[in-house]
Amino acid sequence: MVTALKPLTDRVSRGLSRDEILEAHAHYESTTQRWTPAKKYYELLPVVYRRLAEEWGVEVTWEECVAYGLSVRQWPAFPDSAEAVKYLKQHYKLIVLTNTDNLSFSGSNARLDVHFDGVYTAEDIGSYKPADRNFDYMIETLKRNGIEKHEILHTAESMFHDHAPANKHGLANCWIYRRHEKEGFGATMNPGEMPEYNFRFNSMMDLVLAHQAEVQA
Q1: Around Cβ 128, how many Cβ atoms within 10 Å?
Q2: pLDDT tens by residue, 56-103
Q3: What domains are defined for the chain?
Q4: How far is it between the farthest Cα atoms of the chain?
Q5: SS3 content of the chain, % helix, strand, coil (to 5)
Q6: Where on the phi/psi map is residue 77: left (φ > 0), alpha (ψ -120 to 50), or beta?
Q7: Predicted TM-score of the model (pTM)
Q8: Whole-number Å distance between alpha carbons of 189 and 95
Q9: Does an H or E element contain 73, and which?
């Protein structure tokens, strides 16, 4: 995300820290998702780009904004993610509940190189996490496929998008706390009161290592 925003941030007159960029992006992304929940993610991000440009006093063309929206398919996965999900796939059904659209997620899926047992996008549902609608959709669809709510372990980074609604919907949850050495919430909104969680790991690979240790015990 930060790399894809460089054509904009490089033109800002003052220096912006990485966290300033991420926090501003989080604000406009969540606001735009709330006001226009039916927009596809790659259509929503150009609006976010324009709002950021306005806040930072940079003139941009709509074509630049659109290019940012289309860049999602090139955003890299975390270095440990592909290996981790391939391991977990051997032991569990893997379901994706994502705030991206189908086209954008196809790029992420190609980098992860694993077949997910279900992919539920914001485009499919017509709203964005943390909306109740997204979690209701997931729970209802999984039940149709023989997976009960008590069998779900909702695994994610975002306290705002994922863990607060997971608490609300009575889901067991696992926090992947990649920002454990940093303050703030990065590219996600502050959830306010911190949600509870059942497990916490600093990466997906740490989750895998814990599972391997449990299996071998």
Answers
A1: 26
A2: 999 999 999 999 999 999 999 999 999 999 999 999 999 999 999 999
A3: 6-74 (1.10.150), 81-216 (3.40.50.1000)
A4: 59
A5: 55, 10, 40
A6: beta
A7: 0.93
A8: 23
A9: none
